[in-house]
DNA sequence: CATGAATGAGTTTTCATTCAT
DNA sequence: TATGAATGAAAACTCATTCAT
C-alpha cells in the first residue's frame, strides 16, 4: 500500500529517472549549486536529452518540485482516505481527529522524504514571487478540502466558531514551520513527533479552559 | 522610539552601509544570484573593500544574516520590554497576553522589514546544516526566556499543563510558517494580521471546549 | 626527415593546436603572465574548450611541457639513431663522437625551438619541487642510455675510468647551463656553437695532458 | 670569517630587513605568487614603506636579486682571495686548482643559501631578455678575471691552448646547470659535491689521454 | 616619513545552453 | 531522437599601487 504506480512507457520511465535523480541532486546541492550534467549522468542520459525533455534548468527544477508535491499528495491522500469518502471519515473519526491524521500523513511523508523539504525551500529561495510556488498551488488546490472539513467541524459542534480560512492557514503554516526549522540538527527523524505535538496544542489550545472561572 | 542607534566610528559606518545594502541585494536577488560588485556599488565602496571587511561572499552573507537577526531582536526587546522586567510584565498582562505581544512584536518587525525574511530563507536554503543558521541560534538563545514565561503561565494557572519545550517550538514554528508561506503574493503587508490570528488560535485551540457536554 | 608525424583524428588535431599555441604564449609571456583566453583565441577555440581538454591552467602548462620534451626527444632520437642500433653507432663513431652527436642533436632542437627552453625554465620556476619536472623525468628515462654509452666508452678504452653517473650528470648539466644562460642577448642562434665548444672542452679537458712531465 | 658586514644606519637596517625577507618570500613563493604585504609584515614595516624604498614590486625583486648576487660575490671573493692577490694565488695553487677553488666557493655559497638559486631562476623566468639579469651582469663583470686566470694557465703550460672565452662560458654554464637541475629532489645538500665532480671532469676531460697509442 | 585602508583592473574557472553529428 | 563537445557570459577573488592621515 501507499506505493507509487510505476510509469509504463519507455519515455515516461526516462522522464521519471531524470526527475528522481534531479530531486536527489537539487536537494543535496541546492538549485544554483547543481550541475545539470550530474543529473544527466546519474539518470544515464545525455545532457541534451535532459534539455530536450525539460527545456531548461529552471523548468527542470519546477518539474521536480511538482513531482515531489504530487508524490506527497498521493501519499497523504491514500494514507488518509483509504478508499473512503471525506464525509464517512468525518463521521468515523470526528473532525479534530481527521485534521490530526491529515497533518500527520503529510509529516510522515516528509519525514520519509526529507529531500522534498529541501526542494520546497530551494523553490521558495530561488523563485520567490516570480513563480507561483508549487507547494502553494498544492495548498490552494487543497484549501477548499481543509476549509470544508473545518466548516463541518464547526457545524458538528466539534470546533469553535473560528474563521475557517484563518484556521486552515494556521494549520499549514504550522506544518511548514515544523518542516523548515525542525528538520535541522539531526531532528529530521523526529518531524512526525514534532508535528503531532504542535497540532495537538493547536487543536486544544494553550490557555487553561477553566480560566474563565478565575475572572 | 524603537530606532536603531547609529554607529559612531567611520569604519563602523562603512561596515553598516555595506551590510544594509547587502541585506537589500541578497533579499532581492538571492545569495547565489547576487554579484558582490552590486553591493559594493550601492554602498559606494570598491569591491576590494567589501572583501577586505568580510573575507568572502559567504561570510558577508552570514554577517548580513546576523545583522538582520540582531536588529529584529533589538526591536522586539524594546517593543515588548519597554524598560520593564519580565515578572512585572507577566503580572501586568498575564502570560497569554504577553506571549501574544512577543509574537506580534516579531511579526511587526518582519512586516516592516520583509527583507529579513528573505535573508532567513536564503540562509536556510544555501547553508543548510553546514552552518548553524543565525536565526536558529537566536531562537536557542531566547528559548529559555520563552520557556520560562510558559512555565510561569502554567504555575499561575493561565496555561494548561503542557510541555513547555514543545509549546515553545510550536510558537516559533508557527511564526516561521507564517513568515515563509504567508509573505508571498502581496501578503507581506498582512503578516501581523496573519500571525495574530494564528497565535490566537494556538492559544485558545480549535476544539470546542464545551465538547464533552455533547457526548 | 626529422618531421613530426601529424595527428590524425580531429580531436587530436585540436589538442595539438591548443598545445602548439600554448607553447608559444607560455614561452613568450611566462606561465603566470599568460591569460588562457589568449591561447584559446590563437587556437581558434573557446576558452571552455581549453579547460574541457586540460582541466586547468596548471595542467595545460604541464601538458605543454611534456609536449615540448617529447618533440625534442623524438627529434634527437631520429637525428642520432637514424634507424640504427646504439652498438652499431658506437662501433661506427666511437663513444666520444657519439656523445658529441647526442648533445649536439639536443642543442640543435633547442636552437630551432628556443620556446622549449623557456617552457623548461618556466616549469622549473613555477613548480619547483612540487611537480617532478618534465625534463628531469625525461633525463631520468634516458640516463640509463647515456650511462650505458659511457660505460661502453670506458670498456673500449676511449674514456677514462670515470664514474659514469657523475659524467652523465655533468653532460646534462652542461647542456642545461648553456641553454639557460646562453640563450640570452640574441645568443639564441649560437646555442649549437656554444654547446659544441663546451662539450669538446668537457671531452678533452682543460688541463694540458703533458702536464705530468712538468712535475 | 666570511661574515657579511652589518649595515649601520637605521634606514640601511630597514632596507636590509626588507631585502632579507623579500629573498625568503620570493624564493619560497616565486615572484608572481608573492604578496608584497607578506614581505612588509615579515620585515615589520608598512606596505607603503616598501614601496617608498623600492618603487614597485619589480624593482623590489631586482634589488633582491642584486642583493643575493652581491652576497655571493662577497662570499666567494673572501673565500678564494683571503687577502691575497690573484697572481700570488696562481703561483701558490696553480691555475687548475685555483679554478676549482673559485667554482667550489660559489657552489658552497649556493649550497648554504639555496634561496639565491631560486631567486636567480625566478629572475630569469620572469624578466627574460627584458631586464639584463643580475647574475649575468655579475658574470660579465667577473669574466675578465676568469679569462685572465685561464690565459695565465695557458701561458704557464697548465692548460691546453683553448679559447679562454669559450672555456669561461663552459665553466659558468656548468655551474649553472648543476645549480638549476641538481638542486631538486633533496639534492640541494649535495651541490658542492656535484659541482666538484663536474669541474674535475671538465678540467681533466673524459677522453682517455693514452688514446693516441691506440691509433 | 610611515602607514595601511581603499581601490579596481585583471584572471581563473564554471556551467547553462546550443547544435552538429 | 539522442548525444556530448563546444562555447562564452558571468562571477569570485586577488593584490599592486595609491594617498589621506
UniProtKB/TrEMBL annotation, chains A, B, C, D:
Domain of life where this protein originates: Bacteria
Entry-linked InterPro entries: Homeodomain-like_sf, HTH-type_TetR-like_transc_reg, HTH_TetR, Tet_transcr_reg_TetR-rel_C_sf
A family per Pfam: TetR_N
MF (Gene Ontology): DNA-binding transcription factor activity; transcription cis-regulatory region binding
Record's keyword terms, sorted: DNA-binding, Transcription, Transcription regulation
Domain HTH tetR-type, first and last residues per copy: 12-72
Ranges annotated as DNA-binding: 35-54
Matches recorded under Gene3D superfamilies: Tetracycline Repressor, domain 2
PROSITE patterns per record: HTH_TETR_2 (PS50977)
Designated name of the protein: TetR/AcrR family transcriptional regulator
